[in-house]
Amino acid sequence: MVNVFKLGYAEFGTKDISALTNYYSEVMGFTLIEQADNGKSYLSSGVDHHNIVVTPSDSSQLNKIGWQIGGELSLKEVSQQLKEHGISSELKTDAEPGISQLLELQDPGGTILNLYSDIKTPAPGFKESGIVPNKLGHIAIGVKNAKQTVDFYKQVLGFWETDKIGDIATFLTCNSDHHTLNVLQSKSTIMHHIAFELRSFEHHKDSSDKLAKQKIPVLWGPSRHTAGHNIAAYHHDPDQHYIELFSDLDVYIPELDCMDPRPWHETLPLKPRVWEELSYWGTNFDQDLIGIVMKEEETIK
Ligand SMILES: [Fe+2]
């Protein structure tokens, strides 16, 4: 099986390259590593050559997700394994700066993925201005065929399923983070949100103050989620994508198929389960986060 172990990067197409690049550089506190001749900006949260890529486009959308893989398999062997599951992929050389070889493929839900073993680590370190999250934590995608897409991530790319919210959202991980990917049943292929890990509740306060200085309102939270128990707050980037800042995410132990115990867990040990609500604290959402992908009458608090 393919051994995906890290969410590496997300590439966004945007109509306003300077606004989105400026948001990630000045507001989020990523380091601008390079701007290519084709207008693409490559930004790093601290170690990798890039964790966010911003590229000019006629519309604003998530273009692709990069996943780092380990294990014994070469990219050619990974390509062969994908083929055996009916997934075609293309081996690309020097397609992205900092990555000598990658495999490009489309998951069953229609999201383009890059799989790669190595990325250059110029290690610019953490910036001293802006929000400066620890890392890119997870991405939530909405797809028309959630079950088929979830099966692909579990059966082909080796993800574990850690929780569900109703029959709407499935939480998946490729490492000890409770989730590195959410797959939501949706009317179309969309990115629901992208999330960055903060260090503490104090960091949430500092981040909200920094967003306020930039006139970016916090749309919901901070409040503790049920699935993952992360303390989360959401705002919009300049392209109106939902950006989640989170801390305190559950740690998943695959060997035990449970979460590392925490005092706020409802049962001990806490196993993957189905949740009915989004907020453990009962906080109402100022914005209908789930309604984006659901019928109105199915809205969850
Ligand atoms: Fe999230």
TrEMBL record:
Alphabetized InterPro entries for the sequence: Fosfomycin_Res_Enzymes (IPR051332), Glyas_Bleomycin-R_OHBP_Dase (IPR029068), Glyas_Fos-R_dOase_dom (IPR004360), Glyoxalase_1_CS (IPR018146), VOC_core (IPR037523)
Keywords: Dioxygenase, Metal-binding, Oxidoreductase
Keyword tRNA-binding among record annotations: no
Signal peptide segment: none
Molecular function via GO: dioxygenase activity; lactoylglutathione lyase activity; metal ion binding
Keyword Transmembrane: no
Domain VOC stretches: 6-118, 135-248
Protein's recorded name: Catechol-2,3-dioxygenase
Species this protein is from: Psychrobacillus insolitus
Lineage start: Bacteria, Bacillati, Bacillota, Bacilli, Bacillales
